[in-house]
Amino acid sequence: MELEAKQPVGESNNESEAQYEQSSFEKAINFLLCRGDLAKQRLEAKPVSFFELFRFASTFDKFLVACGILLALLCGIGLPLTTILAGRLTNALIVTGTYEGNNEFRRTGYTYVILFAIVGVAMVAISYTQYMCFKYASLNIARNTRSEYMRSLLRQDAAWFDSQKAGTITSQLNENIDKIKDGVGDKVGFILRGITMFATCVVIGFAFEWRITLVVIGLAPLSAILMSLSSRLIDKASTKQMKHNAECAAVLEESVMNFKTIASCNGQQTVLKKYASGLRMARKYATQIAAFSGLFDGIFYCAIYVFFAAGFYYGGYLYKVGIVKEPGDIFIVANAIVFGAYFLGILSPHLMAVTNAKVAAAVIYQTIDRTPPIDSSSEEGIEMLHSKGSIQFADVHFNYPTRKDKQVFCGLNFDVKSGDTVALVGHSGCGKSTIIGLLTRLYECTGGTVSIDGVDVRKIKISSLRNIVGVVQQEPELFNGTIKENVRLGKADATDEEIIEYCQMANAHGFIEKLPDGYNTMIGTGGIQLSGGQKQRIAIARTIARNPRILLLDEATSALDAESEITVQEALKKAAFGRTTIMIAHRSHKELLQMENGIYASLVKSQQFDEDLHDTAIVEEDRISQLPHFERSGTINSSFSARGSSSHFARGGAFNPDAYSSIRRKPAVEKELLLDDECLKQGRRGLWHLYRNCDGNYAKLGSAVVTSVLRGSEIPLFVVIFKLTFDGFVAANPDTMMRWLLYSFIGFIALGVFLLIVMFLANVFFGWTAECVVDSLRFRALSNMLHQDAVYFDTPSRSTAITVTRLSTDAPNIKGALDVRMVQIVNNFVALAVTLVLGIAYCWQVGLLGLGFTLIVLLLLIVIAKLMDKTNDTAIKEDLSGQLSIEMVEQVRTIQLLTREKHFCKRFDEKLDAALVLQKKCGPPEAVCFTITMVFPYFSDMVAYALGISLLYYGHAKADEVFASAMASNSGGWAIVMLSGCLNTFLGASASVDSILRLVYAPKSQKDSAESEMKVELCGNISFDKVRFSYPTRPQQNILNALTLRASKGQTIALVGPSGSGKSTVISLLERFYDATSGSINLDGHAVKRIPLAELRQQIALVGQEPVLFSGTIRENILLGVENKSDDDVADACEMANARHFIEAMPQGYETEVGERGAQLSGGQKQRIAIARALVRNPKILLLDEATSALDADSERAVQEALDRASSGRTCVIIAHRLSSIQHADQIFFIENGSVIEHGTHQELLDADGKYADLIRKQDLTS
After folding, report:
1. Least crowded by CB within 10 Å, which of 359, 607, 832, 967?
2. Alpha-helix runs per DSSP H in 1002-1041
């Protein structure tokens, strides 16, 4: 049929997202709210209003928030009342001349003590209930927002997903919604309570003495300004720190997840240098943050003491001249204003949390409210219950919205009749897979029409359209769960018998039955527990279950060996019977060969297939109706492939056999856990062991401890100086009073300046120490992981993903035991200890009572902290919603094509509900801890004064002693409040320390130690003699059984055979990812175990089926693990790999950034760079595991020729399912069940008419 190609049509407008620039008024407000560097700041979206944060709150949630707000206001009013009570008690102590036997004094004193108790009990009830209200409401709102956001994600079109940066979606789902939870939770209570407390304190101040209030109230705006400036400077440094931390995280994840590629290239040192460089840059800005924090905190505390001293000195003057009648009023005003100003000053992070929540909500709501042009949840359109399956492409124009400059289709025309089978062929990036995207309405054409049965697909209801179209992709996407559950995604009501039938049709039933749990076998995220061929067969079974009218096969059998492929092809023929089928493949078909001058025939010649196929094969060939001829097609890589797909090789498992290799039996897991504990058996002491691992940082750590101890002297010195103030007011002579107040004034100012210095130094030293120690542990852990044997990662609890998670999350947690939080721990412990001693020294009875009360509260807090830690750990471990959300986001297109959005949303909601129950269990202990820390200082005052009044009444103590001892107990209470804020983080760091140290001290590979002592320049002779091998985690299952094979210098040998026969294991043993169980492996007559690993891998190069590239430039990827190579060497290697032309055509050439996992390049381009990486090493032995499978026919031929040239003088070991690529090998070894069944040249094996010849016939090849 005639195919037309027209000029490109105009580009359609695509929605763009504009940034929201803040107004000057908003910038001024945000300056006061500490929003950072606002001169340059542009937000992703206009922040929502505060009330819009509660958009997804239920009526009950709104009731809880309203109750929380009311209680926070009551708390803000109630707490400052204690300053009045304390002031009145102080006044009674000052003005009462005789205490012993004074009933009026006793009655007055106990009246205030009882009021203390009433306020305290009320605050207990109010604080606990307030926290629980905000806690439960915020958890419910976050759960509902997550659910709605996930629903909106599953609605979005493919073009929207193409425009999203990697990790942005999951980051929004987690971090942004966590910010919303923060902004609607207890932070609201803190803000309202703080503002109400300040307002109440101001009212109290003006009510009792407005003159003193005017002097002291200047602290409030000063504290706000200081916090704002601090936040702006910290924000700048924090942004830069996060940037470098993100770069380090990318290096960490890429290197660990692809550790085999790193090891095979000897790239450990290259990666570690890059990681260390990023850590150094992040450490620089982290230390700046600690310095800014210490400096401004010091200035803030210095200001507090200056204003506090001024208030008392001025109040003393007013008392002296008779303006102030009661000295207690001075204590009330000064304490109240400083108290209110302090709580107003610490609101900055809480205000920032609410502002961040409003911005985060705006970004989240944008997605939730977005109505995509192609809405998979839409009920609009024609419901096609019955379809014939005819397809028409008429004058179709298309370009991907993210790359409008690249036209994919320029007037594409072709028809497919109902029931016909069509093959689509062409170069990589010509648009073959795009046709599938247009047929399923993942994308819409920019011009022309795509029709099914004469109906424009844009008029068909999307779910109806996708239900009549079944897709099997090149990279199969499976979901975490059982095999049965994955197949049932194709048909929700499928019975067990039907599932077995579908799997039999897909040639999957056999291997499934051999698994320990059969169809109930858990396959892991993305089907990671299965081999590529097994995953493909499950995906085919799932598609067959859907019974689609139109079948779209995108290289559907590419992952299968020849034996399985022919069986699955027959199954697909049965499945395609009566259906319209479109196939995408690099392989050829007989009918197209008859077009001698056509593109298809030239592609076949490129693959070196013989055109004289058997007549029997002609009969069995699929009938090809049409051949779309793409002219002027773009050359971009198809965007149809599922997001986040990755092969076993990309995740560090390229060399596992095609069997259920990753499913571990219980004894193996238990043994592995015992080994984990063995790693820390000697010297494991939690936090103590952390401090023993501060080599090179003990001077900084010692300086930090010393300055923190000095910082801890603040509260005891405050008690001593405050006693001078009390003594001054007790003095009968006004001049003596003013002299004592002057001493206290100077003392408070000196204390403030002292605090400024020691707080700055303590923060800097501890922050610097924390960064250095944690960076060292990170570096040592990564270094140790990159030098591990492959078996280390073979068990689920030590998988590469879990290792990355440990390093990413546990390392920052360790800082809680070393950074500025450690300043709080040390100084408050010191303050608590010294104040308790002071309390006993001033009045031993009151002091001992305070000590007992404090110890009880401390023990209670520790018990609660451990309970919280245990509850939080359980909640985190049992929360599976995060794992499911990542899976849903990465495989969203598969979910949409299966029309299973509602099913996955329901599953996600179930996981959220289960997690919510556990998260709510954390509420009560957290609320108790919050309540204790809020009211303890006031109960401490109450108990101390109750005993002190009694002691004064009976003549067992003096007034100044009782006052000083009570102040010491009260100040110790505040030390506990400050301590409790860091204690949970501090204790929680212990588990993280153990986790990281397991990685640091995991026994390193012994392969490069005493046994590896020879230095050999290899020639390339390889011999395997009676080699047996079983994976250490599955010793009962032999992979190789007395395997024997040889390759002489310069020979090319090929390994063929069914999946799981042990071919890839041979490569694993040559690279020494594993060692043979028995038998010998020799290179040039030397035992491979005696050759140092680095030297061995320097002379062996590996090219896998799926290329693994790393973030960085093309040059950096090619030179991974290689030194002393010139630009000419790189260019020559690229020339040999057929990569030089496309690289030098790029604007940046060899300095082009390839992106994460090489995302900026097509599959063929990535593969050619991987081949160049192998060739630049000038290896003596070249290992090719399906090295050209990702290339189109023309590129494959060119690269094959390059590899042929590269193999000259080298020994090559080739694994290939496509037998045409290995016909000219010097020796071909057919491996089955771990043994060589037959070997010889291509012709010798054909003459033997054995299993190899049978494979040849199955692939329609001739001699």
Report:
1. 607
2. none
Sign of the alpha-carbon dihedral angle for 858, 992, 705, 713: negative
Cβ-contact 300, 223 below 8 angstroms = yes
**CA-CA distance, 1154 to 637, in Å (whole number)?**
14
Classify residue 578: in a domain, yes or no.
yes
- Residues contacting residue 671 through CB under 8 Å, at least 6 positions apart: none
Binning the chain into helix, strand and coil, the percentages to the nearest 5 are 60, 10, 30
Name the residue type at position 537. R
Residue numbers in the chain where pLDDT is lower than 50: 1-19, 25, 29, 31-43, 166, 588-603, 606-684, 1010-1012, 1261-1263
Among residues 113, 117, 123, the alpha carbon closest in space to that of 88 is found at 113
Tell me the per-residue pLDDT of 59-90, one tens digit each, with 9 for 90 and over.
999 999 999 999 999 999 988 988 898 888 88
The CATH number of whichever domain residue 1139 belongs to comes to 3.40.50.300
Structure-token pair, residue 286: 């982290």
Distance separating alpha carbons of residues 906 and 913, to the nearest angstrom = 11
What's the pLDDT score for residue 147?
92
Residue 173 within any structural domain of the chain: no
Query: Furthest-apart CA pair in the chain: how many Å?
Result: 125
Count H helices and E strands in the chain, helices first: 46, 18
Q: Which two tokens stand for residue 37?
A: 């560097």
Whether residue 963 contacts residue 723, with contact meaning beta carbons closer than 8 Å, is answered with: yes
| Angle subtended at Cα 767 by Cα 766 and Cα 769, rounded to the nearest 5 degrees | 60
- The whole-angstrom distance between residue 1084's C-alpha and the CA centroid of its chain comes to 46
Which candidate, 1024, 1172, 1020, 1017, places its Cα nearest to that of 1095? 1017
Domain end among 620, 646, 663: 620
Q: Sheet with 1211-1215: list strands edge to edge.
A: 1100-1103, 1181-1185, 1211-1215, 1052-1056, 1227-1232, 1235-1240
**413 three-class SS:** strand
- C-alpha triplet 464, 467, 469: angle, nearest 5°: 115
- Establish if 405 belongs to a structural domain: yes
- Other C-beta atoms lying within 10 Å of the C-beta of residue 677: 11
Residue-wise pLDDT tens digits, 1112-1153 = 889 999 998 888 888 899 998 888 888 888 888 888 889 988
- Vertex 1256 angle, CA 1255 and 1259, to 5°: 85
- What is the spatial distance between Cα 170 and Cα 138, in angstroms, rounded to a whole number? 20
Number of domains in the chain: 2
The length of the chain, given as a count of residues: 1263
Q: Which residues of 734-768 are buried (b: 16+ CB within 10 A; e: fewer)?
A: eeebbebbeebbebbbebbebbbebbbbbbbbbbb
Instruction: Report yes or no on 71 lying in a domain.
Output: no
Give Cα 1114 to chain centroid, integer Å: 26
Cβ-based neighbour number of residue 41 at 10 Å: 14
Q: Which of 1011, 1029, 1022, 936 is nearest to 977 (CA)?
A: 936
962 SS3 class: helix
| Amino acid letter, 205 | G
DSSP tag of 176:
I
| pTM over 0.90, yes/no | no
Q: Tens digit of pLDDT for each residue in 1016-1035?
A: 788 889 999 999 998 787 77
Distance between CA atoms of residues 460 and 480, nearest Å: 32
**Domain enclosing residue 494, as ranges:** 391-620
Last residue of a domain, one of 1131, 1154, 1178: 1178
Q: How far apart are the first and last CA of the chain?
A: 35
Q: What percent of the chain has pLDDT over 90?
A: 15
The closest of 982, 722, 947, 940 to 827, measured between CA atoms, is 982
Do 1007 and 1075 meet the contact criterion of CB atoms below 8 Å apart? yes
> CA 293, 298, 299, 304 torsion: positive or negative?
positive
Task: Decide: residue 598, CB within 10 A, 0-12 exposed, 13-18 middle, 19+ buried.
Answer: middle
Residue 563 to residue 931: CA distance in whole angstroms = 69
